[in-house]
Amino acid sequence: MDRRLFLRNTGIGLASFGFMAAAPEFLHQFAAAQTENGYGRKKVLVTIFQRGAVDGLNMIVPYGESEYYNLRRTIAIKKPNEAEGAIDLDGFFGLHPSMRSLEPFWKSKQLGIIHSSGSPDNTRSHFDAQDYMESGTPGIKGTRDGWLNRAVQTAASKSDSPFRAVSMTQAMPRSLYGKAPSVAMTNLSDFTIKAGLYTADLKGGFEGIYEQNAKDNLSETGKETFEAVNFLKSANPAQYKPENGAVYPASQLGRSLQQIAQLIKAGVGLEVAFAEMGGWDTHVNQSVGNQPGRGQLANLLRDFSSSIAAFATDLGKRMDDVVVLTMSEFGRTARENGNRGTDHGHGNAMLVLGNAVNGGKVYGDWKGLKSDQLNEGRDLAVTTDFRDVFAEVATRHLGSKDTGSLFPKYAASSRGVKGIVG
User: Fold this and answer.
1) DSSP states of 322-357 as a string?
2) Distance between CA atoms of residues 231 and 30, nearest Å
3) pLDDT of residue 53
4) Considering only CA atoms, which of 347, 346, 377 is closest in space to residue 364?
5) d(Cα 24, Cα 187) in Å, to the nearest integer?
């Protein structure tokens, strides 16, 4: 039987690893590196992509800017001293009221924010902007790999785990394309339980097939696959209980972050994780009537912030080694449209959370929202290139040393975000 056909038909799902051709060698390295105690303590970067372009001006509210209220007559979030007003951060910026779950992390200086961040490319295409952000090469469509994959490549070793880079998505995200092997899965429980069933039922079959055809290396591949899957089982998905009173939302992002927490605790060698949340393209009815703190955007932000808060609470002291970084392809127009919504814009806001984060501060250069301060007279200007944020986190947290390889043809600068991660 053809080895690839056999693996596909048995449901082992090696294709989900994104490295079918290299599977035998890679899983052999994994089997050799595996120990009773797993891979030990690792630095982990968790990235969350807000797909659809979140309204950063209502997520991180510039309530100290009078022009904000002139531009958004019906959807502006009220000031902190008003009913359903913003949660004060520093006397100028505030969190959307539905993001209260993140307030404790701001107060404890575990949460940092970069406002007016984004891409130097002015595209308003979701597809192009997401591609540029995930590839790390704005304006260049020919880049083959993603920035997260390059970050993993720069510190690869023979003892790396196959679960070093994991995406909790149905398909591999653009940011993890590349030479470094990575895993995409939608449900850790299904992956381990279903694959585990084959471990019991098919092991003898694998060996038998190999004996009948010594030229096929299926035996080695099969054994290593079983070892990898069984090691992943140590995450114990069916019996997992969050710690420290953490309660994850029953949403895609909540489930994704809970499973990432499981992998971190299981010590499977995770270093980079990817999760995503859609629905941020709020052209119409962004808020409810005369209650701008409620409605479509509020519900999304509540899920978003509650999921992150549960993740950080669950991990507790383990957040010493974990940084969460959020991003969105671009922001939204400074002025509301005629449908109580906002259209495709430019500058936006990013969040960085972790015990090693120098938080309690809004980073970046805020120019303002007056007409002559806006990009093209309509959008929040970008004053911090998203690559500078990525580079600062990758170097300071993951230990990446060559930002030139990380972001080709771009000299990353820490200006505006220097020291955001300790």
Assistant:
1) EEEEEE-S--BBSS--TTSS--B-S-EEEEEESTTB
2) 10
3) 98
4) 347
5) 24
Q: Give pLDDT tens digits for 279-331.
A: 999 999 999 877 989 999 999 999 999 999 999 999 999 999 999 999 999 99
Q: How many CA atoms lie within 13 A of 285 on its CB side?
A: 5
pTM for the model stands at 0.87
β-bridge partners, 47: 274, 325
CATH architecture of 22-188+248-406: 3-Layer(aba) Sandwich (3.40)
Q: Taking all residues of the chain, what is their mean pLDDT, rounded to a whole number?
A: 85
Residue 223's pLDDT is 55
CA distance 224 to 294: 51
Give the span between the Cα atoms of 252 and 257, in whole angstroms: 9
Q: What is the dihedral of CA 28, 274, 413, 410, to 10 degrees?
A: 70
1 pLDDT higher than 60? no
DSSP state of 57: H
pLDDT tens digits, 68-124: 999 999 999 999 999 999 999 999 999 999 999 999 999 999 999 999 999 999 999
3-class SS of residue 60 = strand
Element at 115 (helix H, strand E): strand 111-118
Q: How confident is the model at residue 5 (pLDDT cuts 50, 70, 90)?
A: very low
Measure Cα distances from 303 to 38, 185, 294, 371 in Å: 32, 21, 13, 33
Q: Are 218 and 267 in contact (CB under 8 A)?
A: no
- Domain limits, the chain: 22-188+248-406
Q: Which residues contact 25 (CB under 8 A, 6 or more apart)?
A: none
Structure tokens at 386: 């998203």
How would you classify the pairing of strands 165-167 and 111-118? unpaired
The alpha carbon of 421 is separated from its chain's Cα centroid by a whole number of angstroms, namely 17
The whole-angstrom separation of Cα 332 and Cα 65 is 17
pLDDT tens column, 19-66: 333 333 444 444 455 443 457 789 999 999 999 999 999 999 999 999
Task: Determine the Cα–Cα distance for residues 210 and 208; give it in Å rounded to an integer.
Answer: 5
3-class DSSP assignment, residue 391: helix
